Amino acid sequence: MDSWTSVFYSWDLCDQVCGNLFDRTSFALEKALEYSRHETEFVKRAGFVLMAEYAVHDKKASNEKFIELLPVIEREAWDNRNFVKKAVNWALRQIGKRNAELRPAAIACAQRILQQNSKAAKWIATNALKELV
């Protein structure tokens, strides 16, 4: 996974690999957390795409796993790079749409993000709230 993500050069390649292969591995969330801190744009995007795709595809995952991702989403909402902020937003929306218990947690996360002093954070939160509320 690391060698592949290190050579991602486009959002569509990143999304296809993460959503059709990486998210099905036993270490998808571990890598999502690792990649979410990365400096490289498409590696960081991969972290959030993994979160979004995992929320859609792993029907047996506990809500707690997703609750633990919300502070990471909140922490990285400042990143104004287009491909990163869209993936952060995607992860937040997919977690919120997963079920009735996660929706209020995702909405609360979006409301906290909205308070950040960042153009990217405001876009992420506003866009997510439109879909979740």
Outline of this structure?
With 133 residues, this protein is an all-alpha fold. It has nine helices and no strands.
CATH topology-level name? Leucine-rich Repeat Variant
From the spread of the alpha carbons, the general shape counts as globular
Strand content: under 5%
The whole-number mean of residue pLDDT values reads 98
The figure for the number of domains is 1
Biggest β-sheet strands, sense, barrel: none
Number of helices: 9
| H-E string | HHHHHHHHH
- The radius of gyration over CA amounts to 13 Å
CATH homology superfamily: Leucine-rich Repeat Variant
Report the top-level CATH class: Mainly Alpha
Task: Please give the alpha-carbon distance between the first and last residues.
Answer: 35 Å
Helix content estimate: over 70%
